[in-house]
Amino acid sequence: MENGLKPVGVRQGHLLSLTLFNILLERIMEDALEGNEVTITSIILFTLYSCPSTIQGVGQYTKAIKAVEEDIQNVLKNVNELSGIKESDTGLAPPALWDLAADKQTLQSEQPLQVARCTKIINADSSLLILSLIKDLNNNKFKFVCCLNNVHNKLLFGLHRVDRNKYQIHIPLPPKIDPTVTMMQVEEKPDVTYSDVGGCKEQIEKLREVVETPLLHPERFVNLGIEPPKGVLLFGPPGTGKTLCARAVANRTDACFIRVIGSELVQKYVGEGARMVRELFEMARAKKACIIFFDEIDAVGGARFDDGAGGDNEVQRTMLELI
Predict the structure, then answer these.
(1) Helices (H) and strands (E) in the chain, counts
(2) CA-CA distances (angstroms) from residue 199 to 192, 202, 245?
(3) What is the pLDDT of residues 57-104, one digit of tens each?
(4) Which N-terminal residues, if any, form the signal peptide (predicted)?
(5) 175-232 residue pLDDT tens
(6) Residue 97 belongs to a domain
């Protein structure tokens, strides 16, 4: 070759693409024609650092990166095995976890339960009640007498899964609640205490007496023979500590805390706001103890008026359902 240059030999196991070799060779020729010194060492170093994977098959950090990736895959596999079945939007387990043979055997050995609603209690002492079956396998509806078992009285008037062969209630079903209402529940306990609220000493004392005491010491009201108050109205200009007081009460008790913004109850369609209020209180009754905090209640708590269009305003319907 001209200028005394010879092609670089490719050792066994080292691959060099023809295109890269031609480009590299052209650059070396240009340097040689310009009078620059070109050495075999510079060619090898240039090739290694510009495209290491083409000559040696691996880069400088390829092995370390590959080892880290394998460790990540192993850790991820262990986490998936320990976490078990994951939640899904459809409520179904992944197809890899399906056991169709075991499911078929379970269906053949166990009788399916049916959904029924309690319509009447025959006698409170006899623990017998009448259930109305919503729909059977043949799309028929009928009533039958069932034993009360260990179902709590508050759970009677609702949906139940029953066994018609044994005339027993197996599972009281929870009430059907709108997901929008469920999201109003505050899962984490508020971290606000009474010491964080300043300038409301008298209001805090009344709150503790009216809201906190019935939840923590209900026996005091039983001994006195009086009913505890059902609610408290906090009013005042913005920034005076109304929301902080409600959070402080929820922090002192173990009750479920539900925070509702008044504007969330103002819906577009007729009856939607009243329905959300009903479902909100249904969810609260299902809890052992619950505090419902309506913030900015003036959004639905205005004075009643007649707009002249006939019928009440939707906001007024929501307020009537609330009271």
Answers:
(1) 12, 8
(2) 15, 9, 11
(3) 456 677 888 888 899 989 988 887 776 656 555 556 667 777 888 888
(4) none
(5) 666 666 666 666 667 788 888 888 888 888 888 888 888 888 888 888 888 888 888 8
(6) no
pLDDT tens by residue, 17-32: 445 556 666 776 776 6
Predicted TM-score of the model (pTM): 0.46
Name the one residue in this structure whose structure tokens are 């002249």: 308
Q: What is the pLDDT of residue 141?
A: 63
Structural domain count, the chain: 3
Q: Looking at 80-233, which runs of residues are DSSP E strands?
A: 114-123, 128-133, 143-147, 159-163, 168-172, 185-186
Alpha carbons 157 and 120: distance in angstroms, whole number: 9
Range of the domain at 154: 108-172
Q: Residues 153, 21: one domain?
A: no
Distance CA 135, CA 115 (A): 7
Cα–Cα distance list, 180 to 8, 298, 321 (Å): 71, 21, 18
Examine the domain organization and report whether 202 and 72 are in the same domain: no
Tokens of residue 288, six digits: 């052992």
Burial class (CB in 10 A: 0-12, 13-18, 19+), 291: buried
**Closest by alpha carbon to 152, among 113, 118, 111?**
118
Contacts of 191 (CB under 8 A, 6+ apart): 251
Provide the β-strand partners of residue 185.
Answer: 258
Helix, strand, or coil here: 20? helix
Q: And the tokens for 22?
A: 């031609």
- Of these ranges, 117-126, 161-170, 239-248, the one predicted with the greatest mean pLDDT is 239-248
